[in-house]
Amino acid sequence: MSRPRPPCPGAWPQSENRARPFAASPRPAPVSPRQSPSVPVIVGQITMTHHHHQDRLPKHAPPPGTVLAFAPHGDDEILGCGGALWMHAERGDAVHVVVIFDGALGHRLGAKASADATLVALRRAETRAAGRSLGPLSYEFLGLPEGHHPPRQILARGAGRLAERLRALDPATVYAPWRRDGHRDHRTTSRGVRLALEAVNFRGEAHGYAVWTPLPAETRLDISAAMDARRAALDKHRSQGGSGALGEHMEALALASGIDQDGGPFGEVFCALGAADPEDREELYAPGAVVPPLGGEERA
Q: Mean pLDDT across the chain, nearest whole number?
């Protein structure tokens, strides 16, 4: 359920909680990559290159209505689009997050393999607690095993489950990792979501976010007002280091996304999520294709 809140600095107008067709909110033309100098971002011992644009990026302004964010793991929605989700919640939009993978391989603090089930339960609890810091977010956990490169038939089955959530929630806006984010599970999630969007003939807005690999930014959101909530949310993920290394990464990414842009110092940038990969599309629409349950789901 969405609930209206008083407007906050930088927030979007209050939502009517109605989905609008994409045509009512045209996507701005992308900025040419030739206008994108590189800025080095230092995260701990890792040096990454974050691209920004000399020209001001168009403002990220999704329509009012239900929001559905797909996160490969609990914490990715904070790192990739947590500021946007906070602002959606402040506006009164209903915000739902589907976490795709179980998180059993996230042994940041030296957990043993025998404790996988315990770690999965812990990470779900941390994710719910983090969501409460961002707003009244609802979570669903698909619990799929992480760290694999699924064959296309399995990917099509997973996309079918994501399509079910799209049909049930009928979101106006979707967020998911962009297609080339630097983690196998993130790229798999992007493939599945793009396939699901085509399967339901999605007519809303679908935005790609970055967690590990900078994207070709098309729109920017000033999330300076959301940073305290993002920090509090990420701190709940103690099993993954919380506000330590992940926090440093989040701060650096947000600062890089705000460089040379109007507004506050912190930003999030997005690109169009794009179409499904042709080979994946062929598998989804293969004659006799079925979508059996995958198991492991949990909703909260």
A: 78
